[in-house]
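Notes, Module 5: Reading structure tokens.

Key idea: the token line is not a picture. It is a compressed description, and you learn to read it the same way you learned to read a sequence, by spotting repeated patterns. We will look at two proteins. The first is printed below with its tokens.
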Amino acid sequence: SYGENPHQEAAYYQEEARGKPGPSLVSAAQLHGKALSYNNILDLDGALNAVMEFPAPTVAIIKHNVACGLSSNDDLAEAYRRALAGDPVSAFGGIVSCNRPIDLATAQEIDKTHFDAIVAPWYEDEALALLKRKRDLRIIALGVDSLSPADKPPCLDIRRSGGGILVQTPDFINEKEFSPRTVTKREPTAKEMEDLFFAWRAVKNIKSNAIVIAKDNTLLGMGAGQPNRVVSVHLALRRAGEAARGAVVGSDAFFPFADGVELAAQGGCTAIIQPGGSVRDQEAIEMADRYGMAMVFTGARHFRH
């Protein structure tokens, strides 16, 4: 198998298990389709990481290891429809992941769009039969009942850099010990707080500098991989369009200036969740107060390089 590009050679190795292994691609079963490529494996891994952040039934659509669709809903088929609606153009040829088994209703929705691969805990018989009608679609089953944040394997993140190896523990925060605090005059409503938690889980899986806009437990727009955080806000707002009105913002790191907060407010967003920690935090807080926004500090950063 070749790597990211045809002129690169590649291979996929299984690590020696340490402790109890969680659900993973290396132990999953491929039920149908062409062999997995290097890029497929990277995207499937990103897709799994995205949905494992959420306790509720969740669907992610990944393209080039970036979430272009993400939604949580008690009805998995509805979660898929909402995830797809976030960016249906980018979704074409992407990867779909679910943290719940795929039923027939969800499979019927997925069948309407071309995807490279699907990964889920397992598939109902009728759903699998329908999806297998697409000859090249790679169908991956993890062989578990469902996925949750507790299923993430406790493995180290390892990268090569400059002739050395960088090793770190995973970016994992136990939400039972998570205590965000409101720093603005206005407290977020219960609905805003629900969406803020969704945005905080979502932004963790977006490349920094990352901004997400979310509403009704659905990703509406995101700005990713920008050296300028304000540009990320602008991109997220442009993707969300009019749907940004009444939505919330998640930021993977603090706002170094108040301009990003102001831009989000002018776009119609009503609440923000971010780590805090800037020497200009007070300016960001005052800007949020000026527009009647609620702002929550988490005290934890989610950089992703």
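Here is the second protein, with the sequence above and the tokens below, as before.
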Amino acid sequence: MARNMKAAVMRQHGGPEALTVEEVARPVPGAGEVLVKVAACSLSRLDIFIRDGMPGRVIPMPHVGGCDVAGWIEEIGPEVSGVEIGAPVLIDPFWNGEMLGEAYWGGFSEYVAVSAQGLLPLPQAARFVEYSCLPTAYGTAYRMLHTRGRLRAGESLVVVGASGGVGVACVQLGARAGAHVIACTSSEDKAARLRTIGADECVVAPDGQFGKQVWNLTGKQGADVVVDFTGSATWTQSLRSVKHGGRLLCCGATTGFEAHTDLRYLWTREMDIRGSDGWKTEDLRELLGIMAGHEFDPVIHAVFPLSRIQDAMRELEGRTCFGKIVVVPDDVQAA
């Protein structure tokens, strides 16, 4: 059995070219760990932040990124029970207070060693690509809308930045919950696609000035729930879009952490601002049950072989990306 593997290795921060596919030593599972054969690893904005170099976070080099992994158990380390070799699993990438692909080598590789406590059994092994999309995008969206946001059927929901991974997930899950979904995006092409996955109405605002259109679409009342993970570029517009007694939900800030807040909106509209931090394992279990019932399918923009990881990164950062991008090891791709 070969003890090496292919992995997309980063030796310094930079653009997509910072990742090069090399042959490296295959990890050995330690106590309480298993070795997972990677079948699919979806990309997220966190992968870009790690690659670029996040302020205040030192990533030891060399490093292998990739947070969201689905595959099957290849080896079982000592002090592990209750799992079987060959079992299909989804990895919950957050354990011991740290993130797979950030604090530990991740899924841009053929194999990854992870805590056995972070495994979730998969009901359908043939859908690895779809299942790999769940944690960072759909897990975050589910927790924000349901666990934290308490979204109810019949409520109006505005999704800011609706065409990315988390945004698409919010549109799908919001529609599934029976909300009236208003999706904000940057182009008519994306708006057309958003309507096919559950958006009732779309606001096309490439300049990010969507507030007035949302105000008019809601009868000049505002929306029950607004989700904003874009941050500084859209925060003021999001505040203006919340109705009296509504909720503004935030799970991130991709355009910057410092945002101007006109405090008058808080008291005059008696709104709640709620933070939502990623997901919990129970959120992923709920999503697995929903997927098993065929209530939704993750939206896949493109699937790339691991050997084209640089192209996958460029596609994620491009203006045409809609939904999730997934990387599959070349040996799995060829199987």
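Summary for the second protein:
- The longest strand covers residues 33-42.
- The chain has a mean pLDDT of 94.
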